[in-house]
Amino acid sequence: MPGTRHPVVYRRAMSITTTEELAGMRRAGRVVADALAAMRQAVVPGASPSDIEAVGADILRRHGARAAPMVVYGAPCAAFISVNDAVVHGLPTRTKLRAGDLVKIDVTPELDGFIADGAITVAVEPSTSRGRRLAQSAERALAAALAQVRPGMAVHALGAIIDRQVTRDGFSVIRDLTGHGVGRTIHEPPEVPNYDPGGRSPLLTDGLVIAIEPLVAERSGAIRLSSDRWTIATRDGGWTAHCEHTIVVTADGALVLTALPADDETTH
Predict the structure, then answer these.
(1) What are phi and psi of 112, to 5 degrees?
(2) In the chain, N or C terminus with fewer CB closer than 10 Å?
């Protein structure tokens, strides 16, 4: 669940200092991974975003977790489902998905006081190159950033890595939405922009917990708030992709807490 360039409320950054904290974050991250894996399978022609959200809500209940956006911000849904030109915070509707649609799924559970955040982009099969290329760009940008994570690195350098990859793919990053610290609440310091905004950058520190989330637009990346007051969409109608992991910064690189079962647990 991305922050904005003007976040509402931030607490202090979470940094892992005990094995109990790491275990708690791992448990929350596993809820994200399980929910996204199940919801990915539910993205089929004829299903609705509401159907997909129900799958995620059931996974959270099975783990004894709560949807953090409902707890923290009063969101009306257990997961956000954003389709095509909707970027993030899409409220699940009963509109049936069609082949080629591009679906962004964003899950942020709270479990035993710990919060993890993750997102995937899934093209409804049979998909088109339009959707596949966007989704792959977001995935590549995230992988490129994760590969460079280390203590002492400037946070803005992560944004520069993401921006370079997305530009190379022929797309634009959405500058008004950012990654963020996470752990005890949804949005904590630092902001993790998807480009280098210039100026003094915070540094990654050993144990810091952050959500890195490239948000990719096929056109300008300018956004607007929809009439439901939740869904953020592109101004020009261009499609978007969103990919996100919650990680712990370690001396060995990024410890990924929200990896899907098919992924490696760590990325260096």
Answers:
(1) 55, 35
(2) C
